[in-house]
Amino acid sequence: MTSTLRSTSRVVGRTVAVLLCGWLLHREAGAATPSVQAAYMLGCQGCHLEDGRGFPQRGVPALNGFVGNFLKVPGGREYLVQVPGAAQSELSDERLAEVLNWMLRTFSPAQLPADFRPYSAPEVGRLRKSPLAEVAPVRGELLRRLETVAYL
Amino acid sequence: MIRKWLHTLDRWAEKATRKDARVHSRRAFLSGLGASVVGVGAVTLLPVFRGSAFAQQAGSDEGDPNSCDYWRHCAIDGYLCGCCGGSASSCPPGTVVSDITWIGTCRNPADGRDYIISYNDCCGKSSCGRCVCQRDQGDTPIYRPQTSNDLNWCAGSQADVPYHCSLSVVIGVND
Q1: CATH at residue B151
Q2: Best of A8, A40, A48, A83 to disrupt the B interface by mutation (most B CBs within 10 Å)?
Q3: Could you tell me which of A33, A109, B16, B88 has the fewest CB atoms within 10 Å of its CB?
Q4: Which CATH architecture has domain A33-148?
């Protein structure tokens, strides 16, 4: 009797959970996409995809669960602004700083250093003036540094 | 976190069920449970916004998705998948959607809002050849590849080339 009650209660509990989720999702119907996310969608998502998983098989690096690691080694903070997709994007310095901060917090919160300092517009503006001509060697060196300090 | 939440919910539901069992008949309970199951089914039919889902419902829609004039195709360059056995948001059988793509916006004349559109290609079969459509609004030269519709995005797909047809999928609202 007890086990029957338990399993029945689970069914009821999960039914309530599903109804609750459905109601919450329904409330968002037609809602505008947050503007920072919209900027990511229009400028980055085509390759890095909606959850930042990228397409490593085709050379599009995954952001999720990783990109925050770059802030742990010298040169990594600069690298995230100087990669062509960021430095040469059509976004203003202010918007690019917002999108980078949003990407780091959304896709890689667990890898962010405890003393994470968000990018500012002046910092982004300064760094993007020196975009990387050759990305792969710089990325390779940063990954080696990450391995060396055993951050991964 | 979810496990903990479900556990709390289970405990709450168990208490509620025990209390309910003391005051209501089994038949009444089964009738209520049946209504809940139907309710859950009905909820899944609602026009729900799913932020991370592939396709999203546009607020209101008008026009023929198989016509080049359809509002969602404002920047497309290719064959409309709706004329090739698929739809404006789903690939025809036997083809695979290219994950890597380009994304732009189109204004929906029905509500005046700008929707974010993903122009994914469907790949793996030779060109469909029906309903060719080239509108190019906001299209950029290929040295700005993230907003260029001249690229064969099937090169970024699991299925690889050849290109078959193109989608216009609503993925957000850019107000």
Answers
A1: 2.60.30.10
A2: A8
A3: A109
A4: Orthogonal Bundle (1.10)
**Domain carrying residue B21:** 2-44
B110 shares a domain with B28: no
Alpha carbon separation from B92 to A88, B136, B169 (Å, rounded): 36, 23, 14
The count of structural domains within chain B is 2
Q: Does B16 touch chain A (CB under 8 A)?
A: yes
Contact B65, B88 (CB under 8 A): yes
Cβ neighbours of residue A135 under 8 Å, at least 6 residues apart? A83, A84
Q: What is the ipTM of this complex?
A: 0.75
Give domain status of residue B54, yes or no: no
Amino acid occupying residue A116: F
Is B34 at the interface with chain A, CB within 8 A? no
Chain B residues with CB-CB distance to A24 below 8 A: none
Tokens read off for B18: 């025990």
Tell me whether residue B56 is in a domain.
no
Give a yes or no: residue B24 inside a domain: yes
Closest CA to B103 of B75, B132, B63: B75
**Shared domain check, B153 and B93:** yes
Of the listed B121, B136, B150, B153, which one is catalytic? B121
A64 touching B, CB under 8 A? no
- Check whether residue B33 and residue B119 sit in a common domain: no
152 residues of chain A, pLDDT tens digit each: 455 555 555 655 555 554 554 444 444 446 888 999 999 999 999 999 999 999 998 889 999 999 999 999 999 999 999 999 999 998 999 999 999 999 999 999 999 999 999 999 999 999 999 999 999 999 999 999 999 876 55
